[in-house]
Amino acid sequence: MIKRLLRRFQPALSTLSSLDAYARWAVSYPPQAHNPLMQAEQAAMLDLLPPVAGAVVLDLAGGTGRYGLLARERGARLVIELDNSAAMLARNPLPCRALATAEALPLPDASLDGIVCALALGHLPRLMPALAEISRVLKSGGWALISDFHPLLYLSGGRRTFTTPDGQTYAVEHYPHLYSDYHQAARQANLVIDDVAEPRRTPPSQRHHLPVVMVFRLVKPASR
Description:
The protein is an alpha/beta fold. It has eight helices and ten strands.
């Protein structure tokens, strides 16, 4: 009863566009999994990550370089960092980085062995343009590892939030994409869903019965 009353008097969170949010968040955004949701996401991502030794890997929407650094530690031959936030890229320590959107990758066709894209496609209202670009730049037999804020968590009221150094808390623009949305967009982009994970948060939260993210491993079929 008291919790319900408190919620009634709490101000609603302001939602920022992803560009505005990351411009504010960048100053305090480390290149590590820094909250329970990201820790659950990263464990699932690394469990599905193919071998990267000797590979050319794109960290798409890589921000401060969390997965790019992990790929380099695992022996990737080249790690490319792309993000549409100049503020986040400025804090990225990897040398090969550029400003770009997921819908227009400045890379040649069939130039990559693998792509990692973490918690970013949910900022886009449509999946198909980004998945079409991912498919275009992957070699035949290449893979893409994609995570997204789980739609069930979002539809139950969960939000991706952050707090600025001055104590203001904001929600980040998000569009919930269902499994069926990914399945349809992947098929149209000539990508095959090879494996899926839906981890729950550890330790359990108030919504412990719901998965917190979806992780997809997609493969571009080898040319015949």
